[in-house]
Each structure stands twice: as C-alpha cells, then as structure tokens.
Amino acid sequence: MSLDPDCIFCKIISKKIPAKIVYEDEFAAAFEDLNPQAPVHILVVPKKHIPEVHAMSAEDREIVGHLFLAAKKIADQKGLHVKGYRMVINNGAGAGQSVFHIHLHILSGRRFSWPPG
Ligand code: AMP
After folding, report:
1. Which of 25, 82, 108, 112 is deepest in the core (most CB within 10 A)?
2. Element containing residue 88 per DSSP (H, E)
3. Domains of the chain
4. Under DSSP, is residue 75 helix (H, G, I), strand (E, B) or coil?
5. φ and ψ at residue 52, rounded to 5 degrees
6. For the sheet containing 40-46, what is the strand order?
7. 62 with 50: CB under 8 angstroms?
8. Does the beta carbon of 96 sit less than 6 angstroms from any atom of ligand 1?
9. What separation in Å is there between the alpha carbon of 61 and the centre of ligand 1?
10. For residue 29, with 0-12 CB atoms within 10 Å meaning exposed, 13-18 middle and 19 or more buried, which class applies?
11. Measured distance CA(76)–CA(114) in Å, rounded
C-alpha cells in the first residue's frame, strides 16, 4: 500500500481524518461522500494512491478492477441492485474530478438521467 501524505483520501484510508467507512478490505476502502448527490452516495477507493485512471499502469489493473467487485459487495449489502445504481469515475479536472486519488462513485436511491450533466 503506497499512500500520499498530502492526499485527503489517503488520510481517510490511514484513519488520519474521519469518514463514515462502509467497507474495507486489503485493497480497497469505501466511505460516504461528504456532499452526497443522491440518497446513497459512496466512494470506493484503492488503498494504493493512484491519482486518476489515466495514470494507472498495467500492474494496477487488478487493484482498479477490484473497485468494481467491492462496489458489487456494497450494493449487495445495501440492496442497491434491486432498483439499480449508477457508478461514475471522473477523470481529470475538465471532467469534474476534484480529488486526485482514483474513486468510483456509487449513487443510488433516486432516478438518474442520461446523458449525465
Ligand atoms: P470527484 O469530483 O469525482 O473528484 O469526487 C470527489 C468527491 O469527494 C466529491 O463528491 C466530494 O464531495 C467528495 N469528498 C471530498 N472530500 C471528502 C471527504 N473528506 N470525505 C468524503 N467525501 C469527500
């Protein structure tokens, strides 16, 4: 696990700052978004600091792929699959990324439009 001491999500992973953690395993953690955009809004993050999907290398594929498995487990625990859930990854500031540590948004509990805003 390699962390960046200046990264807010690394600080959450290492429990240096608080968050409502809903899931954790060897490779990933998940916590409630501070500014939820839906009744359920959870962020799934790798424990390795990777700034964005565009910065990942081939050796990161299992870690990044693992985020989807973690998301599925969380959705199972919370029954999100019954009505559906949206998963979002913003890549780069121009696409809306504001925290540069890969995170998979899980959003659920309301209807979602397409295309996204
Ligand atoms: P993005 O804009 O895709 O980079 O998403 C970053 C998300 O992190 C936003 O939805 C923020 O509300 C959320 N966020 C920022 N700081 C925290 C924090 N300390 N705890 C939980 N969520 C956070």
Report:
1. 108
2. strand 86-88
3. 8-108 (3.30.428.10)
4. helix
5. -160, 165
6. 21-24, 28-32, 40-46, 104-108, 86-88
7. no
8. yes
9. 23
10. buried
11. 24
DSSP letter at 100 equals S
Ligand 1 centroid vs 81 CA: distance in angstroms?
23
Q: How far apart are CA 116 and CA 37, in angstroms?
A: 13
CA distance 93 to 31: 22
Q: Please report, in tens digits, the pLDDT of each residue of the chain (117 residues total).
A: 689 999 999 999 999 999 999 999 999 999 999 999 999 999 999 999 999 999 999 999 999 999 999 999 999 999 999 999 999 999 999 999 999 999 999 999 999 999 998
Q: Quote the CA–CA distance of 46 and 70 in Å, as a whole number.
A: 10
Annotated catalytic residue 81: no
Is residue 107 in contact with ligand 1, taking CB distance under 6 Å?
A: no
* N-terminal to C-terminal alpha carbon distance within the chain: 34
What DSSP character marks residue 38? S
- The whole-angstrom separation of Cα 107 and Cα 78 is 12
